[in-house]
Structures are given as C-alpha cells and as structure tokens.
Amino acid sequence: MTNPIKTTITDEQLEQLRAQVGVVNSSAKKELADSEIKRSTVRTWAVLNADMRPLYMDPDHAQASPWGAIIAPPAIILSYERINPGVDFLPGAYPILSKAQLNFDKPIRVGDTVVSESEITQVEEVTNTGVAGRVISAAIETRVKDADGQPVGTAVQDWHLYERGSDAQRTLFAGRGDDAHMHSQEDIEALGAEYKTEEQRGADSLYWDDVSEGDELQHLLKGPTTRIRAGDRRNSTWYWGHKQGWDEMDDHPELFFTNENGMLEPVMATDWVHHRAQRWGGLPGALENAADRPNYLVQALANWMGDSGFPAEVNLDFPIQSMIGDVTRSYGRVTGKSMSGDQGLVTLEVWQINQLDQKITTGTATVVLPTR
Amino acid sequence: MSSNQDKTSELNTGFGFKSDNPNYGKITDESVERLASRIGVERKRDLADWELEEMRYTPGSIRRSAMSQGDYNPLYLDSDYAAKSPYGCLTMPPWSLTSVEVTNAARDGMPGLHAWFRGTTLKWKRPINVGDFITCVGVLTEVRKQQSRTSGEAVVQEYINTGYNDKGQEIGSMFTSWHRAERKTSKSIAKNQKMRGLAEYSQEDIDKIRDDFNKEVHRGSEKRFWEDVEVGEELPFVVKGPTSQAQRGVGEGGGGGAFMIRGEPGEWTHSHGNAFKLFERHPGLPFVNEWGIPEVPVVIHNSNERCQRYLGLPGAYDAGYQRINWTVHMLTNWAGDFGYLSQLEIRFPSFNIMGDTTWCYGKISGKRQEEGKNIVEIEVWNDNQLGTRVTEGVAEILLPSNSNPDEIVWETD
After folding, report:
1. What 8-state DSSP symbol labels residue B308?
2. Residue B167, exposed/middle/buried by CB under 10 A (0-12, 13-18, 19+)?
3. Which residue among A188, B43, B366, B410 is least crowded, i.e. fewest CB within 10 A of its CB?
4. How far does B104 lie from chain A, in Å, by closest CA?
C-alpha cells in the first residue's frame, strides 16, 4: 500500500474560512433558465432514492391529493446547497456531514422555479484533544426560494472537515471490523424479503386526531448501498477532466493527489470507492454521504403520514458515519401533539440504525397532519 | 496497516457472476438464434409527450454536454455568440447524435456476455439546436458468430439508429458494431497475452501533455473555404486526458445532457429496493460485488481495480463513445462555425484504459464536389501515450465555396 494521503489545515486557511462567514452565494443568472422543477426532475430524484410513490410519479393521483399536482420529495432542498465543503472551504480536507436541520415551508410543485442561496453561518475548530489531526466545523445555511422569493425551505448542514491521513480521520471508522459491510447470500435474501414489507399509506390520510403519543412508524429499509448509488448525484457537478482539470490544478493545486498513473487527480476521487479509499487514504473503505439520511427519514415519515401530511422540520445528528455497502433502517416514535392555529402538529423522536445495530442517526421531526 | 493490506489482497478474490442458468454468460446456438430473431424489428423509446417536451435541449444541458468533453466552443456556451453564428442559436455538439442509439449490445440479448464497441458510422444531416428534442428508431441489422484473436468465439451484433427532430426531420443516423464474448474466455486470453499495464507518467510526460493542451487551435467564426483546403494538410490535434475516475464520471455520462432517468432496466440507476426488484425480474443481470452485494455489471468499468479483478484486464477500458466525442472536437475545431461535419466512420482497434492520454489527429485525404456540396475527406486517428493507435477512421466535412460564400452548408428546412 502507498502512504496515505496527508493534508493539513493551516491557521491561515482557517482564518480565510472564517472571513467567509456571512458571504452569500446565490443562484447564477445563467442557471435560472434550468431551474424549473420538471416532472422528470422529480422522477429522477424519486428513482435515485427508490421512493417512487404515486404522489411523485402519477399526475392523476397527485392532482387528487391536497397538493393538486406532483410535488418533489421534500428533502430535495438538500441538493440546493451552493457551497461545496470539500472544495470551497479547505481544499483537500475530508468533509463529513455531522448534522442536518431542515425546515420545510411549502411543497415544491412541478412547474415551480426554485433558486437558492447559501451562506456559511459559523466556523469553529472542534479538534478532539488527544487525537492528532485538526477538525473544523463549518455550518452552511441554504435558503431555497421560489420565483417570487417566497421561502420553500431551509437546510442547515454542519460539515466537519478533517485533515486527511490523520488519526482524527480514522476515528470515523472506530468500532467497525474490516468485514462490517460484507453481506452473505442469506443477508441479501432477507433484505429482499424485508423490502417487500414496506407500506405506503398514500391517499389514505392519517389524521392528527388519530395519532397517539408512543405510536411507532413502520421502519424503512435502505441499502446496501453501492458505488452507483454514491456516484449518480455527483454527475452534474464534476467536470474535472481534460482542459478544465489542468485549469483547476493551476487554481487549486492543494486539491490534487498523484494517482496510480502519475497524473494529478482531485483528491475527492479517492473517497468514492473502497479500493481507492484503502489504497490512497489508508482507510477501511469509502464513506457514504450522510446527506442521504434525511431523505430516507422523510421517506419513512411520508410512508406513515400518507399524501396529506407534510414535514415541517427535521433535525438530525450523525454520530456514526456509514460506509458504502451499509444498510440503513429509519425509525420514528410519536413524542407529542399540539395545535398551531388550525394546523395539527406531531413531534417525533427519529433515529437510524445500520446493519451492526449501531444508532447512526438521532434526532427529532415535526410534521403537519390534517385534522378531522 | 496490515488490515488494509489484507483488504487490498481481497481484490484477487471476490464473488463475481452467479447464475442458476447453465447457459448464462455463454454463447450458444439457441441464444444466438433468439437474438437474431429480433433482426429488422424497429425499436423506439416509449416516451410520452410530456417526456419529450422535458427532453428539449436547454442552455444548461448543452453546456454540460460540451464541458463534459472539455470542448469550450462558444457555439455551445455563449448565447450571444451563437445568435450571431450561422446556427442563430446555441447548438448541441455534433457528438450528441450518439444519443439516437436506442439500444446496443451491452443490454440486448445473451445476458452475462461481455460487450465491446467495435466501431460506428455517424451521418449528420441537420444540427440539433437549443429547444429541440429528438426521437429515434433503432434496428438490429446483423448477428453473426466469428472467431476472435483476443476472445476466442465471439458474436458480432450490429445496429442502425436514426434520429429525428421535433419537426419530424431526420437529424442523422448512427450505425454501430459490437463484439460479444464470454467473460471467462476473454479473461483467460487476456491473462495469457500479458496485456499492457496502466499508464505511467513522469513529470516530463505530464508537462508535455499540458503543453499540448495549450496548442489547441479553434477556428471559430473565421470562414474556411473548400477551395483553400489542400490534400495532405494536417489538422491541429487535440489532446484528451489523462482520463481518471473523476473525469470519467461525467465524461461517459455526457454531463447529463437530456438523458432521462425513468427507473427502467439499462439505466444503471437502481438502488435500494429498486435494485432488488430489478434483480428479481432479471436474475442473470447482476454480479455479486466484493461485499456480497448484487450490482449491475456496468459498474465494473468504473474502476481499474474492478476490471483487473473481475475481467482480468489491465484496467478499466472505455466504451469508445468519448473517443467519438473527442474526434468530433478536433474536427469541428478545424471546420469552424461555417463548416459542417457530415460523416464520421470510426473504429476502435485498441483499448483505451482509464489513465490513458489520447491525441486526436486528422489529415486531409481528398476533396470533391458532389450534388452541390463541397466535401473534404479526412483521415482521422487517435494515438495514446504509448503511440498505440486506439482509433482510426475517416470523416467528411462540408465547407462553403468561394463561389457561394454565404451558403449554409447543412440542411436548413
């Protein structure tokens, strides 16, 4: 094995990052022509997340729903973050999503134009004393709006940026054996059978009046993930080949490593598959992007609420990272009910568990349900 | 780091392809006949009207297509520039004609067999412009067994695909030829042949490639007349690569373009429960990956390690499509905004492995005037960093004539 890639985060870089707090990055004018939410946009998101409910796919079904049209899966607002932590913050650092807070103001309907702006709201050093390797926390707030500037939703994502090749980075894999993401034929068959038990309430409304504290959601299975899952959402953003690759190398030499061919390549390309993470990162493998987890959880809520319910807020912490190949099960339990005006609110404790029975996500959610 | 060394050594084991079908991944008379029964059957994409509307090319999809191949032609990127050009608006890079391919041998018949792209002939009639959508018809034209030097018994599959714009006008056609072989056969033969390894570059090599990037000549709005072209003239080359995992992700996806994910087999976008459903319908499709998870075989080609492990090849070879795109880039650089690439016949005599660098060359081999058209014939080829010819073919470009300098040389009605 080659020596693991090592990167450092300098005080100067940290100060430059702190100077970015409050700077707003908005949708570029040239992107506006492509910012309409199309039916195919919704379908693509639904297919990639394997959540092809009729509310997202079938216009007749959606027209009869309270929303009157196909809506996008609510967690799509996560894809509007306009700052790339692994590139724009501390080039070459290893980015990990540690928290996500999502607020949903209204559904996005097919035909809506959606724009966004992102802003770094907080930068903090969170290096763990006694573990070598700096870790920087940077919170990004992304405000998603419609064509009239009305809020659609807000996503606050807290990214932790690690020095590559550090002990701190390796703690992300603590407690995992080398075969933690191995699956036997029996495992796979059991997962296939489990997928068939998923139930979606759909048009059958769940009313606020019928919900009781302690009610539990049917859990939702996702995974085992593969590289094809990890790669698809990146396709529209990585143009680093040929001439642009050379231009990027001029602008951000610290982003590149010398690959197996002796060619410089963006260091993030070692993060997408196990082989490369092992060879170049000295790591057990490649991690998942935790930004998928809120989507899984909102899907579990949608299964339980049916078409008439809508999430208002989801706050998630990700204490344990997932590796590509892991299984994630999303759970929820009702913890309270209240009325806000004529809206019936339900609060839930939510969590996610991997195939090792580790609680990888903890958090809360609030949803709005119709009343009788 | 012993645990990681152990993990790396696992790359030499793994699960690979499994199927209960004894004929899975094998060439049999029955499977060849079954495939041949589809010869002549027209196939279309079953797209609804709303899907076609949403597939209209936008400035964004055109930009993504151009940038995914490293072609910064302002005809694709700059609306103001394009409006003043003979196109009158943004236009898609001509390589987008390959999107008329309704199906190909990688997903048509004989599951489990390996598929290699042998070559193609593209014929352009009209540009594809911003706001257009295209429909297409594909037909399997040939299925024949033959002996291959590299993979023993093989099957050749050929298709003709024709594309139309939203006015019903033909935009062009794409003939494709494919080579199918048993994976085990190709693996053992590849091993015995001691095929080449991955590309290796010194700093001097990298510096030279960088210098070559800066030699790109883009003619743009300066008109090139047919009379001024001389046989034997060499076209300015373009260089592409070295390719990498980061590059190939967008390069082979064409930057997204107007590709529409529908959740159907062949799109390679299946995950979670969708993947389980797909593999239940098509149990012969997946291979079982290093971690015991069924996956679609196309992902093997996304990394050198997986191609080494599962196919016995030196690295991840490309599908060939990028070499078409890069050659088109070289040709359109030379033709300028008033010239029109009308035909490209291209073959792939050697693999292009991830990490390779590709130089695209052209040389005028002839010129003629025919049916009012001023045609330039060009010999094209691509060489890699080892000097190996990885692509060869011929192209034709239409140019305006001195005698009619304002003529638009492509079909405009």
Report:
1. I
2. exposed
3. B366
4. 21
| Total Cβ atoms within 10 A of residue A60 | 8
Question: In one letter, which amino acid is B189?
Answer: I
Least confident of A122-136, B207-221, B262-276, B307-321: B262-276
Distance CA A225, CA A233 (A): 13
* Residue at B316: amino acid letter: A
Q: Does the beta-carbon distance from A191 to B245 stay under 8 Å? A: no
Of B50, B72, B291, the CB nearest to A182: B291
Strand B114-124 with A328-340, pairing: unpaired
pLDDT band at A80 (very low <50, low <70, confident <90, very high): confident
Mutate to test the interface with B, among A32, A242, A292, A355 (most CBs of B within 10 A): A242
What percent of chain B lies above the pLDDT cut of 70? 85
> Which residue spans within A147-282 are E strands per DSSP?
151-162, 220-222, 256-258, 264-266
Backbone angle region of A298, left / alpha / beta, with phi > 0 → left and psi within -120 to 50 → alpha: alpha
The complex's ipTM?
0.82
**Cα–Cα distance, B236 to B24 (Å, whole number):** 47
Q: Which two tokens stand for residue B354?
A: 């991830």
* Reported confidence tier of residue B5, pLDDT bands at 50, 70, 90: very low
Distance (Å) from the C-alpha of residue B55 to the closest C-alpha of chain A?
9
Residue of B nearest to A182 (CA): B291
Tens-digit pLDDT profile for residues B19-62: 566 777 788 888 899 999 999 999 998 889 999 999 999 888 89
The nearest alpha carbon in chain A to B62 belongs to A34
Enumerate the β-bridge partners of residue A25. A118
Choose, out of B211, B244, B272, the residue to mutate when testing the contact with A (most A CBs < 10 Å).
B272
Contact in structure between B136 and B45 (CB atoms under 8 Å)? yes
Q: Is B261 in contact with A229 (CB distance < 8 Å)?
A: no
**pLDDT tens, position by position, B206-259:** 889 889 988 999 999 999 999 999 999 999 999 998 888 777 766 666 554 445
Q: Which two tokens stand for residue B309?
A: 């492990």
Would you tell me how many other CB atoms lie within 10 Å of the CB of residue A190? Answer: 12
- Dihedral sign (CA A281, A282, A288, A290): negative
* Yes or no, beta carbons of B200 and A262 under 8 Å apart: yes
Please indicate whether, in this complex, the C-beta atoms of A192 and B280 are within 8 angstroms of each other: yes
Structural element, H or E, at residue A343 = strand A343-354
